[in-house]
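Duplicate of #3305? Posting structure anyway:
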């Protein structure tokens, strides 16, 4: 009998916020207002490839005092801590000593906007929360898709029938999600990812963040 094991894996976490309090609508309005303010809120030194159909804010979003932003921050941190605690096997006493450092920002993407391939050095966990997915063209299946590059991409140097159709966690293909409002995706910051061009009407609005951790010695 053959026993198949999976000794290597990449953890990702998914959560959804039920928008019973209209938070996404509040964030949508706030971010469009800040986008219209122009350079006051725009990232002055973008380093990842993008085009003019995408607006990126400064990285201080989670320090804004606006109640909708702080409510979103609480949701993101709550789910991030649950993920870290579960994956590391921390008890509650140790978890209470963890302190999160964060950069956070928002994107407003309109037709044709995209975000190039990148990862996030100097962080351990990253996340993307979808405020609005936009209205995708029906014939564009990967419109605005958040796509992750398979870390075993080098296994594609040679493909034959022995590996061409491997399923599940053994696939050599990339993975992508077309996010909807309220969805949160958490992933290791080293994992390469990109946002495919958005083909649709309205705005695709997301919040992204990078986190690192310290342990309180007291």
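Output from current build:
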């Amino acid at each position: 009998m053959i026993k198949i094991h999976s000794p290597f894996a990449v953890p990702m976490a998914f959560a959804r916020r039920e928008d019973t309090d209209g938070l996404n609508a509040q964030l949508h309005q706030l971010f469009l207002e800040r986008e219209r303010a122009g350079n006051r809120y725009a990232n002055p030194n973008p380093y990842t490839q993008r085009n003019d159909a995408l607006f990126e804010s400064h990285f201080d979003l989670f320090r804004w005092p606006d109640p909708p932003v702080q409510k979103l921050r609480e949701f993101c941190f709550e789910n991030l801590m649950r993920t870290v605690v579960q994956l590391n096997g921390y008890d509650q006493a140790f978890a209470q000593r963890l302190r999160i450092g964060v950069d956070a920002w928002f994107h407003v993407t309109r037709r044709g906007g995209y975000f190039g391939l990148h990862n996030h050095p100097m962080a351990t966990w990253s996340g993307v929360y979808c405020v609005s997915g936009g209205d995708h063209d029906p014939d564009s299946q990967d419109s605005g898709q958040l796509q992750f590059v398979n870390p075993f991409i080098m296994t594609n140097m040679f493909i034959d029938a022995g590996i061409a159709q491997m399923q599940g966690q053994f696939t050599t293909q990339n993975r992508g999600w077309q996010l909807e409002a309220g969805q949160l995706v958490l992933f290791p910051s080293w994992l390469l990812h990109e946002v495919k061009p958005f083909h649709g009407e309205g705005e695709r609005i997301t919040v992204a963040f990078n986190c690192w951790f310290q342990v309180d010695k007291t």
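Confirmed duplicate; merging threads. The longest strand covers residues 98-109. The CA atoms of residues 125 and 188 lie 5 Å apart.
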